[in-house]
Amino acid sequence: MTYAVTRARTPSTGEVLMTGNVWTASRAPMAEIIAMALRTQLGGCLVLPTLGIDWARIAKLGTGAATTARATILAGLSQYVQSGQITGLSVDVTVTQGDRLEYAVAYRDPRATTLLRTRITGAI
Amino acid sequence: MAFTARTRSQIRDQLLGYWSAEYSVRGETLLTSEGSDAYLLASQIGVIEEALDAQAVQVSRDILPDQASTAALERFGVVYGIPRPVGTYAQLTAQVEGFAAFTFYVIPANTQASATDGTLYDVTTASVTTDINKHATIALTAVAIGVGGNRSVGAVLTFQTAPAGLNATVSVLSCVPAVGPATDEVYRSVLLGRLRDRPASGNRSDWRSWVTSYLGTPVAAAYVYPLLKPPAVPPGVGTTGTLGCVTVVAVGPAQGDSFVNTRILPSDDLSSRAVGMPLPHIIDYINGDRTIAGVPTVDGYQLRPVTMGPDGDNWTVETPDTFNTFCELTLVLSGAFAFPWAGTMFTEPTSTNTSLVVLGDQTAKEGLSALVLPVTPDARGNYRQVTLGNATYSAPNTTFDQTLDPVGSPANYTYVYPAPPNWNLIRLAVFAFFDSLAPGDTSPASRWPADGQDGSLYQSSLAAAVIAVPGVLSCTVNLPATNLTPIEKTIYTLSTLWVHA
């Protein structure tokens, strides 16, 4: 059992994972929040406008796209660092194949029993 | 208990608290931090619930008329059968010209005249007799309620069909302006008043409602005296404690700065005002012989109980009787509002409208403000404020040239007082005080509504009203010399008002 109960979602789409008629509890509660933020355009969630990453400001074909993307992701997730919900946040961004921007977010959940870092990857 | 709406964040926090408690019972901790699944779900519900709370607040206000919205007020009016007061009809007098002097002309029934904008007026005068100039005066009532019927003096109206012998156009001489529909606040007070004192079967609230709803002339208030039999020959007190009788005193709008006492309603809905006398148009309306606008009708609705006759023996609607009282005030004024000169002056009989002659050498008062009493007053309170003109002393009198500021031929041997800079505000305060006085009550008291007063004129209340004027530090009421309590149906009115140091 984890330190807190929350629903598990498919990382890429956000669909709630079900077991029969019952939703599945996530084994990494903080990862659900971070993944939710990474799936959301900043300002797109009307009930919590501060949720999300400002993906729109990243020009993938522009000069310094990787640097901009890293800074943007860090900015979007910094609120969780400031609130103490995650520590050791790091973001790596790589531009591949011209217009594919791959990112990897790693952090430590201080409330979790494991000391391992959680790593979330994605691409836009 | 009033319902208090919650904000979306309050609702969210309440939900999260409730859900967390439920999980705690199961030995689990719900993730509720910002951005969590539960947090977002509670936030979404909060948005919806906030709107529902706001609607609930409005519903809680709308269930009673004291705080209801406009639409809900209208619905109360429909349910209780109390429509929003729609306003009054404009009442005009106009000058007609006949083909000949000293000639009698009949104006057919249903004759109408129209203004240039198409506004129609019913001519309520049945016949006229022209004067030496071939002129006569007719009365007209706007067909439609509201301010659209108001006309300025001199406006030209045209008969739809000119009566035989009269010119087709008439010129407006006077206008009793109409007022528009009642505001929400006025309508609310009407509804609340009717709910608290429900009219039924000719009770006192019925009588007040009938009188105040009359639109032929603006009725500001009506006071009902149950069991008060009208006098055989008005004006008079009548007979108290008479079963089956009722007297209603109708009071017009506040007089304010007008020289005409508008609290005395006109018996003809126009200008004929007499104290303590019946108001035949309103009586006709209650009998069903006139419309609510004061126009004669043969198919009106009789309002009075069938057990009461129409002749006014047992009931009447009349103007209040009045008791004129002098008002002399001794004032202490602040430096900024000090009296412009000290003492008084005394008028001599040789004064005219443009020449003020006073006893003694008063030349030092040239150019200062003064109060004089015209022999025929033309302003409420009688005293007129003037600026003293060029002064010439010829023993034993001083003559002020009042060509530029006429003094209205001052009454002989009367005092002239200094007029303080806040004289006009003092006047208006005294006027408002007198306009607030209700007609007197019977003994024992029976007048309804009581309105929290029995019509008494208390010196302390008058002084308080004057002290409220900027610049007045204290006020001593010399006249009236004592507190005054009027007899039934009588209001105290202001005769002459003057002030001094």
Features:
heterodimer; A: 124 residues; alpha+beta; three-stranded antiparallel beta sheet; two-stranded antiparallel ribbon; 2 helices; 5 strands; 23% helix; 23% strand; globular; B: 501 residues; Elongation Factor Tu (Ef-tu), domain 3; 6 domains; six-stranded antiparallel barrel; four-stranded antiparallel beta sheet; 21 strands
Number of strands of chain A: 5
- Helix content percent band of chain A: 10-25%
What pair of chains forms the biggest interface?
A: A-B, 22 and 18 residues
Total domains of chain B: 6
Question: How would you describe the overall organization of this protein?
Answer:
- The complex is a heterodimer of chains A (124) and B (501).
- With 124 residues, chain A is an alpha+beta fold.
- Chain A is 23% helix and 23% strand.
- Chain A has two helices and five strands; from the N terminus they run E-E-H-H-E-E-E.
- The longest helix of chain A has 18 residues, at 65-82.
- Chain A is globular, with a radius of gyration of 15 Å.
- Chain A starts with 17 loop residues before the first strand and ends with a strand.
- The mean pLDDT of chain A is 92.
- Chain B is of the alpha+beta class.
- Chain B folds into six domains: 8-63, no CATH class; 68-83 and 184-195, no CATH class; 91-176, Elongation Factor Tu (Ef-tu), domain 3, CATH 2.40.30; 197-319, no CATH class; 340-419; 424-500, no CATH class.
- Chain B is built from eight helices and 21 strands.
- In chain B, helix 1 (8-25) packs across helix 2 (37-62), helix 3 packs parallel to helix 4 (184-196) and helix 7 packs antiparallel against helix 8.
- The two termini of chain B are 55 Å apart.
- Chains A and B meet through helix 1 of A and helix 2 of B.
